[in-house]
Design brief:
- This protein is of the alpha/beta class and 199 residues long.
- It is 38% helix and 12% strand.
- The protein contains 8 helices and 5 strands; from the N terminus they run H-E-H-E-H-H-H-H-E-H-H-E-E.
- The protein has a 3-stranded parallel sheet with strand order 2-1-3. Strands 4-5 form a two-stranded antiparallel sheet.
- Helix 3 (59-66) packs across helix 4 (68-76) and helix 5 crosses helix 7.
- The longest helix has 15 residues, at 113-127.
- It is globular.
């Protein structure tokens, strides 16, 4: 990602990341490649979807425990939440130090894609959208479902299309927004581009 951004000579004004290590580490690698160490704005609202009782299981473990059909439905349905994660589980944000300053009412036990969309877009509108309107170049390092939520909002995708959208790992999606409208959109690595289901 860093090499691709450097090759395109894209200058980043503001960096945003979730609280989760994958996104933070990705962003650190990018900043190292760009030799650009501006402050990173970390937001729990950009976290991956909270999978409730499925947290800590990989896809194969989920399928084995619940069946492939049910897991697909849980992962891609818009309004269905997995069973809640128990509050004493070590994976629960309540038991992770970096969440200690987040109000308890904001920390979920489980989420649907709709829940993820609501928190991501609320944060985006309050903290990022105005910066883009003011012509700032923003880089967001996040996750499959939080980025999928953002794409749903930006590209005005319906619930069916958003369930089909795949986010390739480590391939920056460049979106040029003018007058609150998308004028250009492309993956920087065209060999690993996915169908954006937009145009």
């Amino acid at each position: 990602s860093g090499e691709l951004i450097k090759k395109e000579q894209i200058s980043i004004d503001l960096y945003y990341s979730s609280f989760q290590l994958r996104a933070k580490n990705t962003l650190k690698i990018i900043q190292d490649e760009l030799m650009d160490y501006k402050e990173v704005h970390n937001a729990w609202e950009l976290n991956e979807r909270h999978y409730g009782a499925l947290t800590g299981l990989n896809k194969d473990e989920m399928k084995k425990k619940y069946g492939e059909k049910k897991i697909f439905k849980l992962r891609r349905s818009w309004n269905i939440r997995p069973k809640p994660l128990k509050k004493n589980n070590p994976y629960h944000p309540l038991n992770i130090k970096i969440y200690k300053n987040i109000p308890l009412k904001n920390i979920p036990d489980t989420e649907s894609l709709s829940d993820t969309y609501d928190r991501v877009i609320s944060y985006y509108k309050e903290n990022i959208e105005l910066k883009i309107i003011k012509k700032k170049n923003v880089l967001i390092s996040a996750h499959g479902n939080s980025l999928r939520a953002l794409c749903k909002y930006l590209f005005k995708l319906d619930k069916k299309k958003i369930s089909l959208l795949e986010i390739p790992t480590g391939n920056p999606l460049f979106i040029n927004i003018n007058s609150n409208k998308i004028s250009e959109c492309k993956y920087l690595d065209t060999n690993r581009a996915k169908d954006l289901l937009i145009f």
